[in-house]
């Protein structure tokens, strides 16, 4: 009796907790509302299964608890019942997987008009590179990293000459413009994670990975590292400032002239 | 991870075939009494050791398949510089083949109860296996002398690791073989050595097979064959 | 019911009787220390694993103290914190759960349940334990090595695992960890061969595969999987050991570490992740399948009802075992691997949910119309279903590739895997110990203490890990020594963290009651008799309890029926032991 009651209470408690929990995802600031929708679908389906299974268990524990004279029913299996349950589970799984795969397809298909930006991780700070007036990023090589060239930008590549380099962890992005973030690391694996953007991907040394997203509202958001990268892992923070297009442009021009001036002498 | 998946698929086929003969579809609650067909399925008492060796070879196979998978992934990176294989490897391969052949003969001798042939065969297998291992060491020395050091390129590192792990497995086999030789010399009847000899022979054939696969990977033939197959399919 | 004609029952097979003479222990040392008896080895394995488990429990306290009350305990600095989480994770997954289920329960139960005198290779079995102990000692030694143990996280991802930014990366920590893993795998292979070959070769007369209890099926399948999966960790460990000590570049690309250019190039960190998870995902099921098997037997025995859908349970077990080898990259959706892999691995991962769900249905359907005795083992089995269903369902979030993107590397993952492969299997371990302790010692564990232990552990563990999901959903990353100031984290989240810590301390402390119970009942427990739960399987039918060397006395058991003849209509008792020829109880088959 008590056991069945506690099982019911656990289930009800879990559902109530879910509904009233003050801890919920951050208000979204990117185009990945579909990801949230997929999570909601998954919550509904899995929640229903959880409640059904534990309630049924509680019922059995109460109804079929040992009493003098009770004998268990003898029934080795029931093909029909098992078949139906399997089919039902299959349908449930498909209902979660199908939307998931469609959204994943979008997630890895970068739109044509996305602007390339670069995110570079190193223990334990972020640096960013934005394309200059030519709209293109220059080539890089980890072996070129040095104190006066912390991102390892190739000086032979003309496309890199006008790139805007931002150290110190504040990335600015224009609102409603898709960006493709090229992710690179010079030491260990890091992970670029902005909770409000929902997107997340590792920065792996020796290769370039990517994610894309479109910021949909202006504001300042935190960048966290989400892959253990040594003792300084929790301190590896940055910010994304999403601005209106014209504010962004004004800021970019100011940056471009400054950075260009700083890098140019080093070319020789 | 292609090679390990191929390997596991092969194991899966064997496992499915075996399980299909174990009555997995039967309804055990309907059957009482000692199952009749069960006694027939019972093999010779010695088979535990053989089955044990079989399972162990699956583990070793998985180990090498994983090493080869790692090799195949790593060799696609741009810094890969294949190293020239020392000529002595071919002599070593010959030695290992001879060793395997010798044990094959010994197995027959044990079955027929031929004392002299048995001892001779075991000894020949041991000597040729030792020759193989010394040859591998010579190959290492030669490569090191030519400047192909372990840390200078991953192709070199893989060569040393793969040959090293294979050599260690053969060394382990040599301990078992050494004990069998000692027992044969103490005059134990060939019939009683039959199991040990058979186990050694199986292990040797397997290690020879692994070595041939490794050789085909190290020389790049395996890659070529896969490329050709891919082109044929495309 | 159809009576199959009895086969020829002659004297026991010569090979089976020989076994008794093989290794008759002559002295105290060969009987209890360097014993080749699987039952002694099982106890040695279990005692060692439980000790390691207590160390890992203390480590979890320390890390929870830091998370709940950041900055209060000055000795838990970032270095120490990462060392604690790493050692906690690796110890629990490999040195406790794997060793306990396979080395502990496998050794004790396989020979008894299939009606064998012992494992087929007793000497190798003994060596297996001592090699395992060596691996544990090497691991523990890293606490005392210069620089302390590694703090690379239990996944040991290179390059950080072997660089100076990580505790133990350029000291002894990571080397000892890798060596210990390599030694463990060698030791496990020796044991694993025994578990598999004993099931294949040493079953009693009449014990067909489909008559085996699901416990044996679970441990058998898991052992086979472990034998094939551990080599992947072996390969990864050997290669990383080379990278760390000999300067190779298997996993090391060109790196500029803290302004220093390292002499490495071209290596692939993702390659390690593939190798690690090729082991790591089957490992989840290596822990889960024995738990599945054991819990099936607990539920069936204590609900006095045959396990519902036995055949489906066996097929599901095998299907999960096979599928678990092609889902590994679902741990790597955001690792920067080829994103198109996501489609394949999400599909395989969600397919594996189907056989797993079938198992859950059959457990609860076994309860349905049963005769449920709410004994302590049964309570643990019920609690297992709750936590496993909860943890399994959150797995559907993380397996579904795009849902994983916001959740991966957050506390949601921590909550998920603790629920599904931490708490759930440990509840089964407790249930199994309460269930089989009478067979091992001849005495019952104390019941009120058991119930206290159960309720605090179950409710406490649920209270720890259920709310933790929501921290992750909010975006709190895992492996943060301190969350610090995060704009999106409200103050209430810190209160929640403190709450979780307090519950964790209580749950941890209650385990001491369990340890006390283990020792106390050894002397003062109620004598149990040979078959206190009135169970059908062979281990309860031994002529003596605890079973002596050779288990069965002069005559090996003969098996006449499957493992689940409970409440058979027409039978006098509500259980028919597997070695009982007819439905009417014959004298001498049930020993008290």
Automatic annotation (TrEMBL), chain A:
The keyword Mitochondrion does not apply. GO terms for cellular component: membrane. It catalyses: 4 Fe(II)-[cytochrome c] + O2 + 8 H(+)(in) = 4 Fe(III)-[cytochrome c] + 2 H2O + 4 H(+)(out). Residues 112-254 form the Cytochrome oxidase subunit II copper A binding domain. One of its GO terms (molecular function) is copper ion binding. Pfam families: COX2. One of its GO terms (biological process) is ATP synthesis coupled electron transport. The keyword NADP does not apply. The chain crosses the membrane at residues 41-62, 83-104. It comes from the Bacteria. Keywords: Copper, Electron transport, Membrane, Metal-binding, Translocase, Transmembrane, Transmembrane helix, Transport. Signal peptide: none annotated. Its EC number is 7.1.1.9. It is a multi-pass membrane protein. SUPFAM superfamilies: Cupredoxins, Cytochrome c oxidase subunit II-like, transmembrane region. It is found in: Membrane. It is an enzyme of class 7 (translocase). Belongs to the cytochrome c oxidase subunit 2 family. This is cytochrome-c oxidase. It comes from Microvirga vignae.
TrEMBL record, chain B:
The chain crosses the membrane at residues 6-24, 51-73, 88-106, 118-138, 158-182, 203-223. Coiled coil: none annotated. It is a multi-pass membrane protein. The keyword Membrane applies. The keyword Cell membrane does not apply. Its main location: membrane. One of its GO terms (cellular component) is plasma membrane. One of its GO terms (molecular function) is cytochrome-c oxidase activity. It is found in: Cell membrane; Membrane. Keywords: Membrane, Transmembrane, Transmembrane helix. PROSITE patterns: COX3. Residues 1-223 form the Heme-copper oxidase subunit III family profile domain. InterPro entries: Cyt_c/ubiquinol_Oxase_su3 (IPR024791), Cyt_c_oxidase-like_su3 (IPR000298), Cyt_c_oxidase_su3-like_sf (IPR035973), Cyt_c_oxidase_su3_a-hlx (IPR013833). It holds the Pfam family COX3. GO terms for biological process: aerobic electron transport chain. Belongs to the cytochrome c oxidase subunit 3 family. This is Cytochrome C oxidase.
UniProtKB/TrEMBL annotation, chain C:
Residues 22-560 form the Cytochrome oxidase subunit I profile domain. It is found in: Membrane. PROSITE patterns: COX1, COX1_CUB. The keyword Transmembrane applies. It comes from the Bacteria. Keywords: Electron transport, Heme, Iron, Membrane, Metal-binding, Respiratory chain, Transmembrane, Transmembrane helix, Transport. GO terms for molecular function: cytochrome-c oxidase activity; heme binding. The chain crosses the membrane at residues 40-62, 82-110, 122-145, 172-193, 214-242, 284-300, 312-334, 340-364, 376-399, 411-434, 454-476, 496-520. GO terms for biological process: aerobic respiration; electron transport coupled proton transport; respiratory electron transport chain. Pfam families: COX1. One of its GO terms (cellular component) is membrane. InterPro entries: Cyt_c_oxase-like_su1_dom, Cyt_c_oxase-like_su1_sf, Cyt_C_Oxase_1, Cyt_c_Oxase_su1_BS. It is a multi-pass membrane protein. Belongs to the heme-copper respiratory oxidase family. This is Cytochrome C oxidase. It comes from Microvirga vignae.
């Amino acid at each position: 009796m008590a056991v069945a009651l506690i099982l019911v209470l656990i289930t009800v408690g879990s559902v109530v907790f879910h509904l009233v929990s003050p801890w919920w995802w951050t208000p979204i600031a990117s185009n990945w509302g579909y990801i949230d929708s997929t999570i909601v679908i998954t919550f509904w389906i899995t929640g229903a299964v959880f409640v059904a299974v534990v309630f049924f268990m509680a019922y059995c524990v109460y109804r079929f608890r040992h009493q003098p004279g009770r004998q268990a029913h003898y029934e080795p299996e029931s093909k029909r019942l098992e078949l139906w349950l399997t089919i039902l589970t299959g349908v449930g799984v498909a209902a979660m997987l199908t939307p998931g795969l469609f959204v994943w397809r979008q997630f890895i298909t970068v739109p044509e008009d996305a602007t390339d930006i670069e995110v570079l991780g190193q223990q334990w700070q972020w640096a960013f590179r934005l394309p200059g007036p030519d709209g293109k990023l220059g080539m890089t090589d980890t072996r070129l990293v040095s104190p006066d060239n912390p991102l390892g930008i190739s000086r032979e590549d003309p496309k890199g000459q006008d790139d805007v380099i931002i150290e110190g962890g504040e990335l600015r992005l224009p609102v409603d413009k898709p960006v493709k973030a090229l992710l690179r690391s010079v030491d260990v694996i890091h992970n670029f994670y902005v909770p409000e953007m929902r997107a997340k991907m590792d920065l792996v040394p020796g290769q370039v990975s990517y994610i894309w997203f479109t910021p949909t509202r202006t504001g300042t958001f935190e960048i966290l590292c989400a892959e253990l990268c040594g003792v300084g892992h929790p301190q590896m923070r940055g910010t994304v400032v999403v601005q209106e297009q014209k504010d962004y442009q004004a800021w970019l021009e100011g940056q471009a002239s400054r950075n260009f001036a700083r890098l140019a002498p080093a070319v020789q | 991870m292609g090679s390990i998946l191929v390997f596991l698929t092969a194991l899966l086929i064997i496992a499915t075939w075996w399980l299909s003969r174990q009555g997995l579809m039967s309804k055990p609650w309907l059957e009482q009494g000692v199952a009749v067909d069960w006694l027939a399925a019972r093999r010779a008492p010695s088979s535990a050791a053989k089955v044990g060796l079989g399972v162990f070879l699956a583990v070793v196979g998985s180990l090498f398949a994983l090493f080869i998978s790692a090799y195949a992934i790593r060799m696609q990176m741009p810094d890969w510089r294949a190293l020239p294989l020392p000529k002595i490897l071919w002599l070593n391969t010959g030695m290992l083949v001879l060793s395997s052949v010798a044990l094959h003969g010994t197995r027959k001798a044990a079955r027929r109860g031929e004392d002299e042939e048995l001892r001779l065969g075991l000894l020949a297998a041991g000597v040729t296996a030792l020759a193989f291992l010394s040859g591998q060491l010579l190959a290492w020395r030669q490569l090191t002398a030519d400047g192909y050091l372990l840390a200078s390129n991953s192709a070199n590192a893989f060569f040393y690791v793969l040959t090293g792990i294979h050599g260690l497995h053969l060394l382990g086999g040599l301990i078992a073989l050494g004990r069998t030789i000692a027992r044969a010399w103490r005059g134990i009847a060939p019939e009683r050595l039959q199991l040990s000899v058979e186990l050694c022979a199986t292990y040797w054939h397997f290690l020879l097979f692994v070595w041939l696969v490794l050789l085909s990977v190290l020389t790049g033939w395996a890659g070529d064959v896969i490329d050709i197959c891919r082109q044929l399919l495309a | 019911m159809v009576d199959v004609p009895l086969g020829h029952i002659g004297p026991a097979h010569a090979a089976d009787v020989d076994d008794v003479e093989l290794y008759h222990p002559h002295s105290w040392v060969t009987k209890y220390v360097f014993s080749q008896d699987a039952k002694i080895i099982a106890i040695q394995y279990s005692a060692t694993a439980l000790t390691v488990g207590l160390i890992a429990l203390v480590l979890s306290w320390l890390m929870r103290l830091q998370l709940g009350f950041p900055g209060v305990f000055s000795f838990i600095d970032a270095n120490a914190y990462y060392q604690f989480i790493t050692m906690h994770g690796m110890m629990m997954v490999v040195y406790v759960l794997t060793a306990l289920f396979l080395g502990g329960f496998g050794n004790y139960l396989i020979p008894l349940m299939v009606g064998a005198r012992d494992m087929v290779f007793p000497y190798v079995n003994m060596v297996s334990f001592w090699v395992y102990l060596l691996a544990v000692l090497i691991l523990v030694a890293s606490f005392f090595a210069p620089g302390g143990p590694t703090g690379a996280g239990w996944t040991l991802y290179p390059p950080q695992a072997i660089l100076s930014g990580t505790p133990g990366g350029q000291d002894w920590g990571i080397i000892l960890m890798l060596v210990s893993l390599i030694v463990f795998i060698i030791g496990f292979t020796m044991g694993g061969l025994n578990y598999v070959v004993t099931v294949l070769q040493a079953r009693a007369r009449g014990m067909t595969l489909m008559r085996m209890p699901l416990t044996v099926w679970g441990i058998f399948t898991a052992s086979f999987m472990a034998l094939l999966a551990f080599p992947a960790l072996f390969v990864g460990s050997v290669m990383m050991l080379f990278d760390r000590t000999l300067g190779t570049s298997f996993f090391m690309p060109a790196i500029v570490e803290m302004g220093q250019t390292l002499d490495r190039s071209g290596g692939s960190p993702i390659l390690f992740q593939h190798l690690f998870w090729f082991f790591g995902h089957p490992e989840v099921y290596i822990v889960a399948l024995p738990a599945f098997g054991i819990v099936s037997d607990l539920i069936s025995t204590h609900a006095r009802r045959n396990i519902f859908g036995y055949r489906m349970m066996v097929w599901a077990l095998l299907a999960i075992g096979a599928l678990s080898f092609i889902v590994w990259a679902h741990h790597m959706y955001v690792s920067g691997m080829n994103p198109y892999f996501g489609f394949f691995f999400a599909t395989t991962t969600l397919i594996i949910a189907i056989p797993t769900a079938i198992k859950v249905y059959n457990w609860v359907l076994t309860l349905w119309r049963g005769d449920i005795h709410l004994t302590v083992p049964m309570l643990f089995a019920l609690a297992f279903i709750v936590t496993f269903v909860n943890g399994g369902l959150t797995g559907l979030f993380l397996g579904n590739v795009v849902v994983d993107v916001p959740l991966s590397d957050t506390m949601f993952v921590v909550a998920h895997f603790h629920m599904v492969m931490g708490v759930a299997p440990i509840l089964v371990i407790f249930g199994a110990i309460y269930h089989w302790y009478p067979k091992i010692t001849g005495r019952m564990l104390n019941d009120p203490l058991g119930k206290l232990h159960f309720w605090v552990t179950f409710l406490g563990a649920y209270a720890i890990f259920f709310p933790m999901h929501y921290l992750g959903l909010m975006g709190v990353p895992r492996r943060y020594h301190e969350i610090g100031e995060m704009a999106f984290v409200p103050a209430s989240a810190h209160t929640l963290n403190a709450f979780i810590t307090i519950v964790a301390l209580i749950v941890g402390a209650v385990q001491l009651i369990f340890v006390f119970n283990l020792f106390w009942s050894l002397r003062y427990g109620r004598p149990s008799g040979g078959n206190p739960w009135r169970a059908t399987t062979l281990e309860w039918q031994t002529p003596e309890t605890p079973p002596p060397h050779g288990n069965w006395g002069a005559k090996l058991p003969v098996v006449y029926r499957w493992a689940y003849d409970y409440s058979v209509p027409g039978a006098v008792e509500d259980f028919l032991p597997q070695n009982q020829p007819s439905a009417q109880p014959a004298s001498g088959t049930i020993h008290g």
